[in-house]
Structure formats: C-alpha cells, structure tokens
C-alpha cells in the first residue's frame, strides 16, 4: 500500500477515527494492529520476518536486562569484598556474557537482512569471477525482500545495542516493542528512530487536539506536494534520460543528474514529511530526518542535514565502536609510531569512516553502484578534511567568508558535488556511470539545453512551468525555515481567511497538478526500496 | 458563547467554500465532449428526455450511428430512444437497461449483439464515455465495478477530479463555454453523419483461436433476458449491418441458438443488406464501419416495419403531446442535416492552395 494510493488514505482515515474514538488506553494497541494490517496488506509472508526480528530482539534484550539486573544485585553485595581489579574482571566477565547474547541476536537479524538483500549480489560477483576462469555460473535465487527490512532491522539493532549499553531498560511488554519495530508510518522509509526518542509519545495516551492534528495534516499536505507535484513529475524526464543512455548523452547527463537530485530530495523529504505528519496527527513525535540539506555549504554539513537518523545510526553503532575497539587502538599506536602523530591519529578515523561509508553504500542497495557512491562520499569528505588547512589559509587571506555571494557559491558547489556522486544511483552499472559522467564533458552540445530538448524528455511546457514554480516554492520555504523558523507556525499566526487560503490553495495545487491517478504509473518512494 | 458560534459558522462556511471550489474545479476539468469526440456526452442526454418511449435501443456505435429515431417516428409513429455509447460493453448495456427500466417501461428493448465479443473490461477511455454520463444509482455502481480495468480505481469515478486533474494542460474554449450548459450532440441518441466514404476495401476478419462467446458475456445476456422478463418488456436482439469488425458465422450460430433457446427475436441485418436497400458506396461515412444518414434512414425504415408488425408497436402519431415534442425534434434534425451538408459543400468549394 503506497503512501500515495487511495487505499492508504482510506486506511489512514479509519485508523485516525478509531484512534480518537477508542478508549485512550487502547490507542497504542490500535496502532500495533494497524501496523500489522498495513504490513500484512503489503504481503502476508513479510510478517514472518518482522515477527522474527521482534521476537528475537525482545528475548535478547530481556535476557540482557535480566543478566544486568542480577549482576548489579550480586555486584552490590560483593563489591566491598573485592578489590578494584577483581571488580573490573567481574564486570568484564559479565560484559562478555552480554556481548555474546547481543552479537548472537545481531548476527541472526543482520544475517536475515544480508541473505535476503545481498545473496543475488554475491552470486553475481562470484559468477563474474567464475566467468573469468571459464567456470560454470551459479543460478540466481528467488528471494523476497520484505518491505522496509533495512529500516526496521537497523531500528531494532539500535535498540538492542542501547539496551546492552545500558542506555535505557529493555521494554518488558513484547507488544510495545512490536509497535516500536513496526510503527506503520515510518516502517517503509524511516526515519530510523531510537527507542528513547519514540517510545514515550508512542505509548502514552493522546487527546484529540485540533492544533496538533491540523499541524500534522499541514505537514502531510506539504509532503504530498513534494512527492506528487515535484518528484513524480520530474521522474518522467529523469527516467527518459537514464534509461536511454545511448540517446541522452552529453548535456542531457547533466540535466538528468540535476533533475535526479531534485527528484530524490522531493521524494525522500516528501515521504518523511508525510510520515512525521501522520505521526503528529496521532500526537506522536517522530525524529526529524532532514534539515534543509540543499542549503549546506560543504559535504560534511550536507550529511549532518540529510537522512540524519541514518547518519547518526552509523556514527553511534559503527563509527564509534570501531574507532575505540582494541585492534583499532593498537593500530592507532602503531600508525603514530610509523607516520608520526599528525598522520597516525587520522588512520583509525579514516579506517572507521571507510567502513561506515562502505556500509552506508551497501545499505542503500545491493550493487557496486551504491558501494562506489558510498566510497565516493568517503573520498570527498576525506579530501575536504585534508584540505581544511588550505581553506583556512585561503579564508584568512581572502576575506569572503560570510559573504552572501560566496555562501551561494558554496551551496551550489555542494549541490553539484552531491549530484555528481548521486549519478551512481542512476545508471545501471559503475562503468556506464563513469562513461556517462565523462560524456557530460566530451559529448556536450549547447543544443541539449534547448527548449526542444527539454520537451523531448516526456514533459510538456506546462509541466516545466509547474516544476519551476514548485521548486521555487520549496526553496523559499527552506530559506524561510532556515532564517525564520517554522512556516506552519508563521501561517498559524495569520488570520483565519489567510490560513484557509494557504492550506486550501496547497490542497488544490496537489489535486490539480499532482502526478497521480490514471495515466500516471504510481511510483513508490525511492527509499522504500532500501 | 457568541464567539464560539461565529467560529462554528466560519468553519462551516469554510467547508462549504472548499467543497464548492473543488466541485467547480471538477466541472471545469471534466471533458465536455461537445466537439470532435462527442460520444462521451451521449449517455447523459437521456436524463433530459421525457421517458415514455415505445422502444429503447441499448448498445454500441452499431446502434447510435445506424438507427434514426426521427425516421421511426415519421414513418411508423414509434417513439424511441437510443442509449448508446462508444464500445459499450455488454455489462454496461445491462446496467443501462436496469437503469432505464427504473425510469420507464418501454414495450421493446433492442440490444445489438456485437458486444458479445467482449468478455472482459477493455479500455478506460471508453468506460469513461459510458459511465461518467450516468447518474449515480446502484446501476452505475454495478456498471463501474464490472467495467473497471486493472489500473482504474472506483474512487476516481466518485470524484472524477482525481481522474481528470491532469487536463489542466489541455483546457480549451469548450471547457469554459460548456461550464454550466451542454448542447445536444444526438437526436434521441442518434449520432448523425451525412458524409460519404464508400466501402472499397473491407478488411477480412482474422481467424480466431476460439469462436465461443465468453462466460461473462453470456452471464450478462442472461441477466438482460431475466430483467426484461421481470419487467414484461420484449427483448429484441439485432446485429447491425456494419461490414466490419467481422461478424463470424460461428458467432451467428451461437446467437441464433441463444435466441431460439430463450424465445427471443433476433435479426441479423447483415443478411438483409439488399432487402434494406443499403449501398455501401453511398450509405456509409467510414467505409463500411458505420452507416451515414442515408444508410441509417434506410435501416430505420426497414427495422421500423419489423417493430411495428412483429412486435405490434402502435402508431402514436396523433398523440398531441408527442407530436409537439417531435415537431421540435424533427426541426432540429432537419437543421443539422442542412448544416452538415453546408459544411461539406463549403469544404468542396474551398479552392486548394
């Protein structure tokens, strides 16, 4: 059930009505039932996988929690009898036991994810090697990929690790944990929430409050605007270009690259707006996943603003653990010895970053395109960090830092850089991506930017006009949010007729100019596939 | 308290304005079918009629382009109407029949059997031309459900704005001219064409793997028979004399058997082309697919005779009320004939550049 389908809107309306009609104590149970119905409607067999994750994580966390509690009790009694080293040894012994449970659960769940998502990718690579040596190729296997598996697996693993770390206590009620794992608005494309961020508002009772509900509906509208008016319209031109690389080369690659950047932004942020809006209408606060990434002045800032919950997940659960693990600390020492302090201290950081970006790439999809894209980000970030002293020197000599024109240049540079990296999402394989990227310069013709060329991409003049105005509106809203805060709050302070005109106008724009319904193929959100 | 009521009033007013706005927008964006493809406007015209017909024809273009109710009235005093639409599928005909019988009880309902060839939903565009014009009732709901192709959605029939919103890019003068009103595009359901295009090369029918009519088609034909029996209306089956699409002998056998089995009258006018006096060098406007005015009038004279004699329809000329209605209709009929001929002559007289 796509977020943009009529069925989903009907489903949402029923859930919303029941949510505020039923006794407030039953609200979270209703959400659990709704989430499972939502998942069951996608494909009943998917339930097996989400249930497996929920059950294993529940038992693993409860086991860890029980062990922690028992150990704490015993430790408090014994503490006085033991010296410092003995206490440390005891704690270490206990930690190892808990690690075993956590790692077991992690391996099982990440194993499920890996098998379902990456088996055919592995077979493809093995076949490539076998092909070189004339060996017999392995057949591909037909595996299902449950909806949102990357998101709910990561969310559950985050919870498991947090419980192991003692960040909070394990949830005793398995049904509550089941809701945390399966909460339907964020099941298919995130954000990847943390238990302590989401749980309170997810399980507490909510009164119907017109302000909260209307703010949620406004956010949903804005999400649909981005998805239906921008993303699902521009995708027609993007697909025309990227699916026909022989025809659309040179300047078209640049057009496709930029259009894809806008499409991805409108699609993903639109989806998250809908998710957060739905949760808000139910009185639930979901973590923000974007902070106007297209206003970033450098790549590092961009990644602090784009898909924030994924970035923080990788930082907290991969980057830091790897950075401070024993082998890495040993390597740190050795590197300092071999290369000196300045370079040596960077080795573990870059090594951890490499692992994080490799994981980020492969998390996005089982293909070399995503891996190269992830590593591309790593290289760009590494280079920009290495060049930091040069920037500082430049800024000390040329006083342009803070200059609006220079800031615009930085923003455009970042958008272009990110868009270049994103071309790996577009073309079918890595060699073709490099080839098309090169063709952008070698096959460039100014005629590719003519009106006739644009009109040959499947969109009419009217479509381009709508796109242009919609992108201007999105940019204006981003700028307003950056400088002055929430647009919804600003509109809310206006008189009723103005408020009515704004939101009714937005609804009409979506209804009329949205690319939906008959004649448009319903396209799922890009991040649903991850 | 007063403030609260003002707030409630404002909210209600806002809702009313919002609904009205969306309603007007929907009206603007829905196709008007006033020029070019006019078939989409045919179904809705029926509701403006006084519903006391002797015969109602229900079916596809083989009826609404081949039978002239004006001739039936002039020659036999038969008051008739054609509930036709492009590629009208048999379940659509059934639900139109069901709906018609809610409004009136004609003596005879005539159904053209070419629709038996379709067993499944076909094209959304054609569905729309039949279904959008129907008024909401259980018949329309049934017809929509039976007709929808895989990529159609019921909600888009309930709120056509969701289907036609993308027409914002195609809005033309007609959309504003016919925002509140509609012109008539037919004469009691008859779509008139006076131009001529002789049938020179009639395409032969391709051999089929299976000539049996589908289960679904038979199901709805059975339902038609039952419905007519329940309402004491005679159901007459016809096959119009269109030279193509092909009407296979195997289909003919099945129809004859069905008619015999159910005690229905069945007339295949393809077999009586000469008797009717049709000349496909001058009686068709699209090379044998449909009849033009001349052909439709010849067929109407022929079929009117059958309806009067075999079905015992009385001549209602002399009914003052009907005479008045038809005087007006015939004037419009003649005016359009004149207008169409004038247009053709103007085109002929225009020198080529």
What's the short story on this structure?
The complex is a heterodimer of chains A (530) and B (353). Chain A has 530 residues and is an all-alpha fold.
Instruction: Write out the CATH superfamily name of chain B.
Output: SGNH hydrolase
CATH architecture of chain B: 3-Layer(aba) Sandwich
Tell me the greatest interface. A-B, 18 and 21 residues
Element-level helix/strand string of chain B: HHEHHEHEHHHHHHEHEHHH
Task: Report the total helices of chain A.
Answer: 23
Q: How many strands of chain B?
A: 5
Q: Strand order across the biggest sheet of chain B?
A: 2-1-3-4-5
Unreliably modeled segments of chain B: none
What kind of sheet is the major sheet of chain A? none
Give the averaged pLDDT of chain A, no decimals. 91
- Rg of chain B is 22 Å
How large is the count of helical segments of chain B?
A: 15
Q: Could you describe the 3D structure shown?
A:
- The complex is a heterodimer of chains A (530) and B (353).
- Chain A has 530 residues and is mainly alpha-helical.
- Among the domains of chain A are: 6-208, no CATH class; 297-428, no CATH class.
- Chain A contains 23 helices and no strands.
- The mean pLDDT of chain A is 91.
- Chain B is built from 15 helices and five strands.
- In chain B, helix 4 (69-76) packs across helix 14 and helix 5 runs antiparallel to helix 7.
- With 353 residues, chain B is α/β, with parallel strands linked by helices.
- The longest helix of chain B has 30 residues, at 320-349.
- Chain B starts with a helix and ends with a helix.
- In chain B, strands 2-1-3-4-5 form a five-stranded parallel β-sheet, with helices on both faces.
- The mean pLDDT of chain B is 93.
- Chain B has one domain (39-150, 181-349): SGNH hydrolase (Rossmann fold, 3-Layer(aba) Sandwich), CATH 3.40.50.
- The A-B interface holds A 6, 460, 462-463, 496, 500, 504, 508, 511-520 and B 10, 14, 17-18, 21-22, 25, 29, 124, 151-153, 155-156, 161-163, 165-166, 168-169.
């Amino acid at each position: 059930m796509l977020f943009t389908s009529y069925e989903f809107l009907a489903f949402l309306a029923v859930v919303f009505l029941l949510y505020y009609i039923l006794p407030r104590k039953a609200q979270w149970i209703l959400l659990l039932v709704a989430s499972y119905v939502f998942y069951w409607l996608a494909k009943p067999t998917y339930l097996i996988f989400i249930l497996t994750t929920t059950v294993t994580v529940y038992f693993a966390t409860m086991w860890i929690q029980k062990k922690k509690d028992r150990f704490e009790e015993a430790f408090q009694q014994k503490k006085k009898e033991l010296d410092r080293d003995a206490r440390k040894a005891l704690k270490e012994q206990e930690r190892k036991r808990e690690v075993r449970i956590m790692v077991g659960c992690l391996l099982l769940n990440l194993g499920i994810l890996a098998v379902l998502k990456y088996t055919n990718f592995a077979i493809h690579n093995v076949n490539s090697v076998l092909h070189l040596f004339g060996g017999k190729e392995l057949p591909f296997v037909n595996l299902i990929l449950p909806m949102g598996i990357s998101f709910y697996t990561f969310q559950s693993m985050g919870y498991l690790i947090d419980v192991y770390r003692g960040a909070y206590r394990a949830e005793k009620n398995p049904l509550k944990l089941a809701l945390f794992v399966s909460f339907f608005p964020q099941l298919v494309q995130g954000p990847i929430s943390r238990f302590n961020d989401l749980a309170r508002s997810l399980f507490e009772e909510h009164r119907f409050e017109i302000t909260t509900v209307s703010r949620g509906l406004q956010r949903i509208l804005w999400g649909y605007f981005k998805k239906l008016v921008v993303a699902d319209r521009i995708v027609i031109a993007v697909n025309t270009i990227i699916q026909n690389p022989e025809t659309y080369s040179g300047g078209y690659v640049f057009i496709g690259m930029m259009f894809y950047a806008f499409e991805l932004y409108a699609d993903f942020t639109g989806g998250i707006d809908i998710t957060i809006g739905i949760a808000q209408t139910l009185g639930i606060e979901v973590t923000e996943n974007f902070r106007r990434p297209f206003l970033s002045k450098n790549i590092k800032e961009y990644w602090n603003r784009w898909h924030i919950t994924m970035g923080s997940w990788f930082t907290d659960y991969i980057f830091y653990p790897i950075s401070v693990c024993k082998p890495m600390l040993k390597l740190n020492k050795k590197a300092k010895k071999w290369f000196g302090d300045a370079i040596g201290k960077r080795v573990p950081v870059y090594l951890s970053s490499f692992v994080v970006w490799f994981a980020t790439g492969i998390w996005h999809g089982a293909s070399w395109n995503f891996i190269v894209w992830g590593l591309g980000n790593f290289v760009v970030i590494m280079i920009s960090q290495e060049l930091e002293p040069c920037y500082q020197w430049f800024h000390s000599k040329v006083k342009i830092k803070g200059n609006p024109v220079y800031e615009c240049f930085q923003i455009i540079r970042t958008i272009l850089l990110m868009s270049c990296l994103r071309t790996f999402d577009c073309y079918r394989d890595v060699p073709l991506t490099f080839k098309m990227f090169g063709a952008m310069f070698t096959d460039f013709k100014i005629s590719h930017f003519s009106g006739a060329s644009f009109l040959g991409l499947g969109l009419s003049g009217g479509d381009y006009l709508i796109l242009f105005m919609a992108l201007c509106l999105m940019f204006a809203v981003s700028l307003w949010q950056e400088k002055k805060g929430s647009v919804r709050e600003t509109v809310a302070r206006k008189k009723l007729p103005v408020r009515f005109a704004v939101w009714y106008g937005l609804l009409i724009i979506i209804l009329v100019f949205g690319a939906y319904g008959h004649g448009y193929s319903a396209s799922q959100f890009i991040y649903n596939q991850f | 308290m007063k403030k609260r009521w003002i707030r409630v009033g404002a909210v209600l007013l806002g809702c009313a304005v919002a609904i009205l706005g969306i309603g007007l927008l929907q009206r603007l964006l829905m196709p008007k079918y006033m020029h070019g493809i006019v078939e989409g406007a045919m179904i809705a015209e029926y509701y403006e009629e006084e519903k006391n017909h002797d015969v109602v024809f229900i079916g596809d273009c083989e009826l609404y382009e081949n039978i002239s109710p004006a001739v039936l009235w002039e020659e036999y005093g038969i008051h008739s109407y054609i509930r036709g639409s492009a590629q009208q599928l048999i379940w659509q005909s059934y639900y139109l029949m069901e709906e018609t019988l809610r409004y009136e009880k004609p003596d005879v309902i005539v159904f053209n059997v070419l629709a038996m060839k379709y067993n499944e939903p076909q094209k959304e565009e054609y569905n729309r031309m039949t279904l959008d014009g129907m008024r909401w009732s259980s018949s329309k709901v049934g017809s929509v459900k039976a007709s929808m192709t895989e990529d159609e959605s019921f909600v888009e029939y309930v709120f056509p704005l969701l289907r036609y919103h993308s027409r914002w890019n195609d809005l033309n003068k007609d959309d504003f001219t016919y925002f509140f009103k509609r012109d008539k595009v037919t004469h009691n359901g008859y779509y008139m064409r006076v131009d001529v295009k002789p049938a020179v090369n009639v395409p032969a029918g391709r051999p089929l793997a299976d000539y049996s009519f589908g289960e679904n088609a038979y199901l709805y034909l059975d339902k038609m028979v039952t419905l007519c029996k329940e309402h004491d209306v005679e159901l007459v089956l016809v096959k119009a004399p269109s030279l193509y699409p092909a009407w296979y002998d195997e289909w003919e056998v099945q129809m004859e058997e069905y008619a015999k089995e159910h005690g229905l009258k069945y007339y295949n006018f393809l077999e009586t082309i000469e008797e009717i006096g049709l000349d496909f060098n001058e009686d068709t406007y699209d090379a044998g697919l449909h009849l033009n005015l001349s052909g439709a009038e010849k067929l109407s004279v022929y079929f009117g005779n059958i309806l009067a004699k075999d079905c015992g329809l009385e001549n209602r000329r002399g009914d003052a009320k009907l005479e008045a209605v038809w005087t007006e209709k015939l004037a419009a009929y003649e005016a359009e004939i004149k207008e169409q001929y004038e247009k053709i002559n103007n085109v002929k007289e225009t020198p080529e550049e």
